[in-house]
Amino acid sequence: MAGKLIANLIVMGSGIIGRAMLQAYRKALENANKTGVAHEAVNNIRRASKTMTEQEARQILGVTEQSTWEEIAQVFSYLHLAPRYSHVQC
User: Fold this and answer.
1) pLDDT per residue rounded down to tens, the chain (90 residues)
2) Do 42 and 10 share a domain, yes or no?
3) In a domain, 90, yes or no
4) DSSP 83
5) Its domain of life (predicted)?
6) Are residues 44 and 75 in the same domain?
7) What residue spans of the chain are helical by DSSP H?
8) Cβ contacts of residue 67 below 8 Å, gap of 6+?
9) 67: how many CB neighbours lie within 10 A of its CB?
């Protein structure tokens, strides 16, 4: 009999705690939307995951739109491999 009572208390208690946590989460989201924190967080995520444009890549590599693929690959290889061999003296 005592085991059944304890089991019922645990089930009821976990239900109450679960509903309270859900309500608190909803309230937190509502407050975040009111203050603009949620919008700011979304903007920060978008900024962090922004990919580089082709124009930015060309500017970093120092090539123009008329550059051939071979020229671009050569510059990229040089810039990519140069730090690895900067300690080697010829």
Assistant:
1) 788 888 888 888 888 998 999 899 888 878 877 777 777 777 777 676 667 788 888 998 999 999 988 998 899 888 887 766 655 565
2) yes
3) no
4) G
5) Eukaryota
6) no
7) 2-35, 37-48, 54-61, 69-81
8) 58
9) 15
